[in-house]
């Protein structure tokens, strides 16, 4: 396709401007602050651009123009078909582009031609006066509509099949639109125009679960940089767009990357352009070892596993933490701030942060982990990290580490002191308290549901149950959001280990830490008593009642306790179920699953499998279980579960060898990134007391060292 290649190279240098219409994100409809703005409808021939434009023009009280009929043919004084015949494909595109460069109208709804998007200079020109709305219509529908239409005015038609032309153009549209509208057969122009209005009016604003609203309003990029709200609440979007079953159907069959893009787009992204999001997603998930990114496999009976551990550090955290650094890289370029990271980890977040953020060489990273609360492999992953990192084993539990992180974020004097050591330093969070870290997790359940549809296990629209091992309530909240998007999810089950505060809370409506003892378990990643994302959950299900949330979570901070009223309690129970698994049951489940299926499941997965198995499966509704980490991250627990004799060794490699030697073990199947660990050197072996001053002192020492390194580099 020589001509297509030519067009492609032309388009490489055209990157659409950032969407500037969303920066304000106030309660006003977005259009009212720029009534003059043009709305450009873009899409293949037969997408309905012209008819939708007419309806939309009425709804928005704008003029309407069809580029073919009201611009090109008027100016050329000849038909588009004749012009194409006269000039040929390339000549036509050039002439059409030149004509578009003269476009100076304001306050129009414009239906573009199918080929306008192929001319980058004119698209850039148009982007200055309006936004591009992409009518994303299924190709099969376009092909059948084109059969019925006069199709003598499509560029490329003389030499290529219509399907090829459409596929190529789709790739251009995909990189140009500001707003995607997923269009289905059976939708009328009026339906489509209303969806467009909804999207144009979607509030782009984020607020705190405890009521804080920035006067200048915060958009996606702001909350990604900030992590936590100043009132200690968590950032949440004011609104998001549901996904209808018909829209979901359009996601079916797409790659994980394409699904992720379409799901994340349902949430307000403000000035982050979809084309940037697309390239970030592709780059992030390119690091995964499995083509499906998150494959779904059958376990036993009605149980299916989402295998989330094919990323570079072998837990689901990679899905977010490969994405977040790339996002911050794009949005913080030239913002005059040096972005650092401060993270508390129960094991997997730390390892995933250290891998993901090593791509930002100028960002100092501080990781706090409970020194006796992570597995031998997790510890090795963190201690062998490279780059400007400070990894501290804290003589305390995860909750202490997380509270430290929240404290340090909100201590402005301290942050000024840090910035004196490293100029313009600003710490962000990569825990799931950060919305941008959490958002990619909403995709898991949507993608996995569609995988079950693609594998003919369910039909679209049929319900499934979901069971997820829960610590900070992140993944399970992702599933709750998926349900609120419109996914037909029946039961959502949160599975805890013996730190079963969530299971008790769902049962009693009381969140009580007063007499609770923190326990170190063989599932360290869910050894958590303060489940931060519960706050977002309560906010979501109380229809954004921040007064309730503020009261409950301030009570928790002050009194280590809160109790919800009966109404809220029953609402909670209608949204989620919960259960928990003892240490002994967890080990037994690893063993029984292995015996029954030959599969190795990690202890966290086993916690969920055990809880899931306690539910009646007679209705044969599939139970999707989140397998959150690779089993080889927890070799001690695996060997305890699978061997008759308890393991004597503490050597990671010996443990890997024993695992490999077990029957059914696919010999190549220890995660390749974990195997590399034994070749690396442990450098970050420092431990610190569970005490704010001591931790702050360590961070300052590290920052001093970091600042001399960057000064040294600059002198070079
Ligand atoms: C982080 C983690 C969890 C808990 O996830 P939340 O979303 O915080 O509830 C469960 N299992 C593993 C392996 C994890 O790393």
Automatic annotation (TrEMBL):
SUPFAM superfamilies hit by this protein: P-loop containing nucleoside triphosphate hydrolases, Tryptophan synthase beta subunit-like PLP-dependent enzymes
One Pfam family named in its UniProt record: SKI
UniProt cofactor(s): pyridoxal 5'-phosphate
Cellular component, GO annotation: cytoplasm
KW tRNA processing (keyword) present: no
Highest taxon, organism lineage: Eukaryota
Key words, A-Z: Pyridoxal phosphate
InterPro entries linked to this entry: P-loop_NTPase (IPR027417), Shikimate/glucono_kinase (IPR031322), Shikimate_kinase/TSH1 (IPR000623), Thr_synth_N (IPR029144), Thr_synth_N_sf (IPR037158), Thr_synthase-like (IPR004450), TrpB-like_PALP_sf (IPR036052)
Record-listed N6-(pyridoxal phosphate)lysine modification sites: 317
Domain Threonine synthase N-terminal: 205-285
Family per record: Belongs to the threonine synthase family.
Protein name: Threonine synthase N-terminal domain-containing protein
Native source species: Didymodactylos carnosus
Lineage: Eukaryota, Metazoa, Spiralia, Gnathifera, Rotifera
